[in-house]
Amino acid sequence: MPEETNQTWDAWLPRLLKRLRLREHQIFLALTIIIGLVAGLSAVLFHLAINSLNLQLFGLEPSTARLILVPTLVSLVAGFLLVRYFQQARGSGVPQTEAAFHLHEGVIRARTTVGKFITGVLCIGAGHSLGREGPSVQIGAGLASMMGRWLHLSPTSVKNLVPVGAAAALSAAFNTPIAAVLFALEEIVGDMNARVIGSTVLASVSAVVVSRSILGNEPLFRVPDYALVHPAELLAYAVLGLVGGAVSVAVLQRAAVGARVLPAPSALEPLLPARHGRVGAGRDPGVRARGHGSGLRVRGRGLERPAAAGDAHPPGSGEGG
Q: What is the value of pTM for the model shown?
């Protein structure tokens, strides 16, 4: 009986929309605005929950013991939750959102979205060296995916809602609507001329309006005033740029050959906060490192680089990477 009631409730709104003879692109446009509002509220709630938990755990003047014990204990709790209940919520959130968009037709489970919110609040609120970017992206994309599937939209429409939700949540989280749109198109979609650019902009603006109306329009990061004291400083900046570029190339090459985290005994999984409790440090075993600007692409079960002439194993074979 409860199952029949749930099925009836799930089908009620789609039937109503059908009677109103709304086409799917009209539903998609209206849903874009709703997703912007909902994702904006989720980002605001995420921000407030983190600040509240941080204050509860550390107080205004935390002792040394608190600074050591709180992150460690919360890591163990978050690691247990990720292993037992929210396995798909592991990782930073951005690669997992990309995988959902490119490999799974935009499907992100409700449990994953809830798990990312809970574990993200725990870890960031406990003072881990993480940020809100990855969790916000996955939470916003998850909400958009859930709403699209609840309305029984086509797989293509559900997939296109993922970058819309990601941009909306990121826009509200950092008060940066333009940067959020660019991030979603470049990082999630991989195409700056994607057809969803209009919907992404609309959702991003809607979300940032919600965020600013609640949290205000203050900049998230304050940059101090800077003045060039001596022209020789430019030489130091040039050296820093060369070193940073060389390190970046080395990291991308390392990622391109499929650098992996060594597997740990299953019995120790709940006790590995560095791998699970720290939401930004874990990896989804089905997702490999990639980047649209580094020649990497989607293929098979992972996100990996195209085959080169000297490759011993082709991409997607599961070998050599």
A: 0.69
